[in-house]
């Protein structure tokens, strides 16, 4: 068996990309490998599973050649073609790839200077050996800073929500097929839709627990059953993920579900509230302390009902006022996925040389997908034309052309309306990467920070505020710049930004891209209190990613947003009024 996780496969593809780059391979090949690596890294299914099921097509951006290579990889454990491409390149190069700030060329330079790997690099940087050998001083400092930041980040190895959610969906789909299982739900941080997830746990209601357990351990894709009891089972999936199941009688399912959904803080507070009312809570039910009688509860409605409370949606069970409001029956009506009427950040392939990754689909394909999702409108929001390849005049031409293309698309009138948007770089001084003469062709611009993440808090705050002052900018894209498990947020005085945004009718984006989920839920709640409005967008680079909207909505819910707080729940007319410049 040749088991490779998605991260390992992506890593191999990145190595081939680097090898092609160093060997001056053709640009299309390099792009193809880059795209394949990115799709696999962000895939919500295990590539190995898809390969086994003959479903590699489900991963976007993988052509026939790479598919054949993956086939060879899973069958034999290696790929001859890849080995050949990598021949002659010092192995140290591949060790150094992936360290922030080190691309293939720098890696080669370092390897040639005798750096053997990451630890050696840290050693040589710390002792100034590299600079003495002639390595660029500013570059050495940049890499050193990046390494320091990386080591400061907690390595808790948690899964991205999107990945955990997709694994859970497959499991749920299987479990719902047997008559021996009456109800099943994911538990813990997954049910609360936290941005990163530790473990997968499931609650199951069954009249015939033994049969349910027997069915669970026969699930396809299990590499090992590590525990099998009368009411509990633990399995290890082929990707190495451990999953726990706990089975109870349907009569006490509500208490079990409540108990293991958490959060801990929510349950502790809830227990002390119950005690004051002469009740004691557990996974078995609600006990009357005086009479010792346990009230079983088959649903959470019954469970919270015994406490004379509303049921707080799982996403807000974090002990931040939800208990107080549930007691008063004043919980907010949180936004739902069905409230969303459009996606305002989808990258297309329209702009030939954008400043960052282009999308893979045409505007028409995007509009069709938007229709399938039931949307009324969709924002074609490409990265701006790159400054390296366009002067101001050329940018104006590109955006004039984009406007015409979108008008033509909208002319047919059959598909959802396409809004003409652009993701504009916020330059280090807060100016925009595109002149106003070009921005005027847009419905509005989404402005994002894509460089110089290390500025001081004050500098970064001023930078963002200056960008938001531009009348064409209506949305701040992925506001904190964090990449989950990869990059910390940059430092910003959020109060200043929230105040400015609320006062000047600028929205903050809740970006649903799997490793972003940015603005983070805690800041969403804070911003909302300042009266800030949001757009929930997927930042899709491929129409298949437009499904990620639910994760952005989850962040909005965790931030206590109602539909009225989210601009893309509004109908088209109101949206146009909002974005009128
Ligand atoms: Zn961006
Ligand atoms: Zn984007």
Largest sheet, order of strands side by side? 11-12-13-14-15-16-17
Bound molecules: zinc ion
| Terminal Cα span | 59 Å
Overall pLDDT metric: 92
The CATH topology of the largest domain = TIM Barrel
Runs in which pLDDT lies below 50 for 5 or more consecutive residues are none
The helicity comes to 40-55%
Largest sheet: 7 strands, parallel
Number of domains: 4
Q: Approximately what portion of the residues adopt beta-strand conformation?
A: 5-15%
Task: Briefly say what this structure is.
This protein is an alpha/beta fold. It is 43% helix and 14% strand.
Describe the structure.
This is PHP domain protein. GO terms for molecular function: DNA binding; DNA-directed DNA polymerase activity; phosphoric ester hydrolase activity; zinc ion binding. InterPro entries: DNA-dir_DNA_pol_X, DNA_pol_lamdba_lyase_dom_sf, DNA_Pol_thumb_sf, HHH_MUS81, NT_sf, PHP_phosphatase, Pol/histidinol_Pase-like, PolB_thumb. It is globular, with a radius of gyration of 26 Å. The strands form 4 sheets. A 7-stranded parallel sheet has the order 11-12-13-14-15-16-17. Strands 2-4-7-6-5 form a 5-stranded mixed sheet, sandwiched between helices. A 3-stranded antiparallel sheet has the order 8-9-10. The relative contact order is 0.07. The longest helix has 20 residues, at 392-411. The N and C termini lie far apart (59 Å). The chain is 43% helix and 14% strand. It folds into 4 domains: 6-152, DNA polymerase, domain 1 (Orthogonal Bundle); 159-248, Beta Polymerase, domain 2; 254-327, Beta Polymerase, domain 3, CATH 3.30.210; 337-579, Metal-dependent hydrolases (TIM Barrel, Alpha-Beta Barrel), CATH 3.20.20. It has 581 residues and is an alpha/beta fold. One zinc ion is lined by residues 423, 448, 450, 477-478. One zinc ion (ZN) binds at residues 345, 347, 423, 539.
């Amino acid at each position: 068996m040749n088991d490779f996780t998605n991260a390992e496969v992506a890593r191999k593809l990145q190595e081939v990309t680097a090898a092609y780059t160093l060997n001056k391979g053709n640009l299309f090949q390099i792009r193809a490998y880059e795209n394949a690596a990115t799709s696999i890294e962000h895939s919500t299914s295990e590539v190995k599973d898809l390969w086994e099921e003959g479903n590699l097509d489900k991963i976007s951006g993988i052509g026939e050649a790479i598919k054949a290579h993956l086939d060879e990889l899973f069958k034999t454990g290696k790929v001859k073609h890849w080995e050949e491409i990598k021949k002659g390149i010092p192995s140290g190069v591949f060790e150094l790839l992936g360290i922030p700030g080190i691309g293939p060329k720098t890696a080669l330079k370092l390897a040639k200077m005798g750096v053997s790997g990451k630890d050696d690099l840290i050693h040589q940087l710390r002792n100034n050996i590299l600079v003495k050998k002639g390595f660029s001083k500013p570059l050495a400092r940049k890499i050193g800073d990046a390494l320091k930041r990386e080591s400061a980040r907690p390595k808790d190895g948690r899964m991205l929500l999107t990945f955990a959610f997709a694994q859970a969906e497959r499991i749920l789909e299987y479990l719902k097929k047997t008559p021996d299982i009456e109800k099943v739900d994911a538990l813990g941080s997954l049910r609360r839709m936290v941005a990163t997830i530790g473990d997968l746990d499931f609650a199951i209601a069954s009249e015939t627990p033994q049969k349910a357990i027997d069915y669970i351990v026969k699930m396809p894709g299990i590499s090992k059953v590590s525990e099998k009891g009368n009411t509990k089972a633990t399995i290890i999936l082929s990707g190495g993920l451990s999953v726990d199941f706990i089975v109870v009688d349907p009569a006490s399912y509500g208490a079990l579900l409540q108990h293991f959904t958490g959060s801990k803080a929510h349950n502790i507070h809830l227990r002390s509230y119950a005690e004051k009312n002469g009740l004691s809570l557990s996974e078995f039910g609600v006990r009357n302390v005086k009479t010792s009688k346990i009230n079983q509860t088959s649903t959470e409605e019954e469970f919270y009902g015994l406490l004379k409370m509303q049921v707080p949606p799982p996403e807000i069970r974090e002990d931040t006022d939800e208990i107080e409001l549930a007691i008063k029956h004043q919980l907010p009506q949180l936004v739902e996925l069905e409230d969303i009427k459009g996606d305002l950040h989808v990258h297309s392939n329209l702009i030939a040389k954008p400043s960052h990754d282009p999308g893979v689909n045409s505007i028409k394909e995007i509009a069709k997908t938007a229709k399938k999702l039931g949307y009324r409108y969709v924002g074609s929001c490409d990265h701006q034309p790159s400054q390296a390849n366009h002067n101001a005049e050329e940018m104006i031409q590109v955006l004039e052309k984009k406007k015409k293309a979108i008008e033509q698309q909208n002319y047919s009138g059959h598909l959802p309306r396409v809004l003409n948007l652009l993701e504009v770089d916020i330059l280090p001084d807060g100016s925009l990467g595109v002149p106003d003469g070009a921005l005027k062709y847009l419905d509005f611009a989404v402005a994002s920070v894509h460089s110089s993440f290390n500025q001081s808090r004050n500098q970064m705050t001023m930078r963002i505020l200056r960008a938001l002052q531009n009348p064409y900018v209506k949305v701040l894209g992925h506001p904190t710049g964090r990449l989950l498990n990869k990059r910390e947020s940059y430092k910003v005085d959020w109060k200043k930004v929230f105040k400015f945004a609320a006062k000047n009718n600028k929205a903050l984006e809740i970006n649903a891209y799997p490793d972003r989920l940015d603005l983070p839920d805690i800041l969403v709640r804070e911003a909302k209190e300042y009266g800030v409005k949001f757009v929930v967008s997927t930042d899709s680079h491929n129409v298949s990613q437009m499904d990620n909207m639910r994760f952005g909505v989850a962040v909005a819910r965790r931030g206590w947003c109602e539909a009225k707080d989210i601009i893309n729940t509004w109908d088209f007319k109101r949206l146009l009024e909002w974005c009128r410049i």
